[in-house]
Specification:
By secondary structure, the protein is α+β, with helices and mostly antiparallel strands. It folds into two domains: 237 residues, Rossmann fold (3-Layer(aba) Sandwich), CATH 3.40.50.300; 107 residues, Beta Barrel (OB fold (Dihydrolipoamide Acetyltransferase, E2P)), CATH 2.40.50.140. It is built from eight helices and 22 strands. The protein has a six-stranded mixed sheet with strand order 6-7-8-3-9-10, with helices on both faces. The radius of gyration is 24 Å and the shape is globular. This is Carbohydrate ABC transporter ATP-binding protein, CUT1 family (TC 3.A.1.1.-). It holds the Pfam family ABC_tran. Belongs to the ABC transporter superfamily. GO terms for molecular function: ABC-type ferric iron transporter activity; ATP binding; ATP hydrolysis activity.
Length: 360
């Protein structure tokens, strides 16, 4: 296992980048701890795979360094980094059996056949393919082949890091849950440093100890699922994490109050005067309809999501969402909305502003 350091890292696919907009990966410096389970989360084109390929050695960055346990591997080939990587689409040797595919990384490093057999059996059980070990891979389905790719990535215990690039794209939903559970168990048992690229927040939040949220080539927040939900450091994090995402509403903030179209409510904390694009962010779970308290709102429709209801509403010309309990009654006289002051975040130019007195 290895601590991974990204030192002043940035990358452009252009030969002569002139400005920040020419960089697919904006400048970043981060330490990812030895034995950590990280998920790189963001929408398509945000730079996730570019960053993963730089860490794996498939791509040399335009600037900066990659270090494993303090050792500079920026220009080291993939084979010298002692990593395992699983790609979005399955890569298997069709002419080999399932057993030989799983055994290949171990045999390639000269492990004795007794150990190889034991480890292959263990991994086959993990991916649910014990009864297919003798089959040639050429006739297997895409999801079966991807399970083999996952198994081959996990078969070695001595790797510096396991890298997964959207590995469950071709896996059926039920098997996705099982394999994520197995990956978590593998991490718990062996403590590998794992980096898992995905655009699916459920995959990221259920797999990772720390989620690395990327937007427009930049890491906008690294945190636990709770931190991303409770305190999004960027409006994109609030929007992308949660279903529905955080309500982001233009406002004027003055001291302990937020003003929206002349109406105001208390923030529960004090803020210094600020310029630029100022917004408040409130998750739907922390908004409540009322008959008399709060600011005016117009309910457009109510959607029953089973365990809760999602209220779609107009709030001073802005679409907002409100989450209500499954048994909560929504009447026509509920024309006001209240926000829980303890869960309102303030943003300037999309970045969260800490209230006065908040610990760093």
């Amino acid at each position: 296992m290895a601590k991974i350091t990204l030192d002043n890292l940035a990358h452009s696919y252009l030969p002569n980048p002139r400005g920040e907009e020419d960089f697919a990966l904006k400048q970043m410096t981060h330490d990812w701890q030895d034995g950590g389970a990280y998920a790189l989360l963001g929408s398509s084109g945000c730079g996730k795979s570019t960053l993963l390929n730089i860490i794996s050695g498939l791509l040399i960055p335009s600037q900066g360094r990659v270090l494993f346990d303090g050792h500079d591997v920026t220009h080291a080939p993939t084979a010298e980094r002692n990593i395992a990587q699983v790609f979005q689409f399955p890569v298997v040797y069709d002419t080999m059996t399932v057993r030989d595919n799983l055994a290949f990384p171990l045999r390639n490093r000269g492990r004795d056949e007794t150990y190889v057999a034991e480890r292959v059996q263990e991994i086959a059980r993990m991916i649910g393919m014990e009864d297919q070990l003798r089959r040639k891979c050429s006739g297997l389905t895409a999801d079966a082949k991807q399970k083999i790719s996952l198994g081959r990535g996990m078969v070695r215990k001595d790797v510096n890091a396991l890298l997964f690039d959207e590995p469950l794209t071709v896996i059926d939903p039920h098997m996705k849950w099982e394999l994520r559970t197995q990956l978590k168990k593998l991490h718990h048992d062996f403590g590998h440093t794992m980096i898992y690229v995905t655009h699916d927040q459920t995959e990221a939040l259920t797999f990772a100890d720390k989620v690395v949220v990327m937007y427009d080539g930049r890491v906008v927040q690294i945190g636990t699922p709770e931190e991303l939900f409770e305190r999004p450091e960027h409006t994109f994090v609030g929007y992308f994490i949660g279903s529905p995402g955080m309500n982001v509403i233009p406002a004027k903030v003055d001291g302990t109050r937020a003003y929206i179209n002349g109406s105001h409510f208390d923030l529960g904390a004090g803020y210094r005067a600020m310029e630029g694009k100022v917004e408040i962010g409130v998750r739907p779970e922390f908004a409540r309809l009322s008959t008399s308290e709060g600011l005016p709102v117009k309910v457009r429709r109510v959607e029953d999501a089973g365990r809760h209801k999602i209220i779609r509403a107009d709030f001073f010309g802005h679409d907002i969402n409100i989450v209500a309990g499954e048994d909560e009654s929504i009447g026509p006289d509920m024309t006001r909305v209240r926000f829980d002051p303890a869960h309102v975040n303030v943003y300037r130019d999309d970045w969260r502003v800490a209230p006065e007195g908040e610990a760093a």
